[in-house]
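Notes from hallway chat w/ T.B., transcribed later so I don't forget. T.B. wanted the structure written out for a chain they're using in a teaching module, and asked if we could keep both sequence and structure tokens in one place. Agreed to drop them here.
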Amino acid sequence: MKTIRAQLMLGLLSGALVCTLVAGLAIYRLADRESNEQSDRQLKQIALALPVQLVTNQVMPATEDADDMILIQVWDQRGWKIYFSQSDLPLPLQPAVGYQNVSFAGETFRVYTELRADRQIQISQPVWVRHKFAVNMALRILSPLVVLLFALAFLIYVVVGKTLAPLRKLEAAVATRAPNALHIIELGELPEDLLPILSALNRLLEKIELAMTEQRVFVADAAHELRSPLTALKLQLQLAERSSTDALRATAFVKLHDRLDRSSHLVHQLLTLARQEPDEAARTLTDCDLYLLAEQSVIDHSAHADSKSIDLGLTGDSVSIHILGNIEGLGIMLNNLVDNALRYTQRGGRVDVYAGVESGQPVLRVSDNGPGIAESERMRIFDRFYRPDGNASWGCGLGMSIVKNVADLHSAEIHLNSNANNVGLVVTVRLSRNAFGIPEKNK
């Protein structure tokens, strides 16, 4: 692909060349017309300047310049030849007086015929002589234009180079930067055309710096959180190796499996959180049925609920509601809410999932009758790796952070409340009214 400089140079020089050629053609046509008019007057003047008396075979001075070749022919009233300037070109006498073009001997002649007393005078000139004269005249006029064209080309080269200098300055400022230099670019005075590009580039650098900072924090937190379970795994394995009886060894392996489950859960949550990190603008929104998502989440967690004798299901007033959203993200959000509810709800408890519309907004809700979360700690549960004190169930503190990321992606609000009897936890996700895709249908 050609550079902007090459395109400007090519376009401007081509335009200048075309204009010069058009001007040259116009000058040639004008010169040709002027040449014809001047030559016609010359033919008539020659006819008027002939001597009053001409005798047969009288010799007239001949021109030495072939380019100015003019044929003079004179007849008497009887049609007898009185004088021919060139006997090798015996043009026939034309019956009409005045100017006319005549073809003879493969050439075209411009002929002027005049009757004077007892004589018939005919002055002729080849047309190519006129054209040649017009070409010479046009070339003399075009010579300054050609010089002007070269001067214009040099001027275009200088002006284009100077105009693109700020762009090259911006290019150099970006090219010479280190990979970790993400501070904004300051170049002083710039043309107004480059200011939007510079502003957009600086905004991009700010976004990249923010993303890299978040990534560094995430990696540091993940490394910190992984260190403890891996250390615990190694210690538990050493205990299993040192067990002296089968009963102690069996107990050690049970605890080892528990540690492995916790580590596997932590890695799974870390990977899920990492998938939610990319720029939300890159995500594709599709038609999603919140009821089907809630139903699928209940089905996926039914085995876990049965293992703890927890009553898990959809509320009876749930309806099919279609929105435009990221179906994978919404599914991850629901799974984490249901998983958290099951994890912290006591055996024999209850977890309800709701999908529907409230106050014109699509709503997803997961409620349980477990121990709940103190009101003073509710906003902190969205922080990565934060777990409220006093929880007997193990976890990694990433589930609600993932829920918050998905909610932010859909411009949704998350509300944390207790049930009517002030027990358990109710997590309500209210999506934007703009999220509606296909009108909802009652299930």
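Follow-up for T.B.: Residues 438-443 have pLDDT under 50 and may be disordered. Might be a good example for the class.
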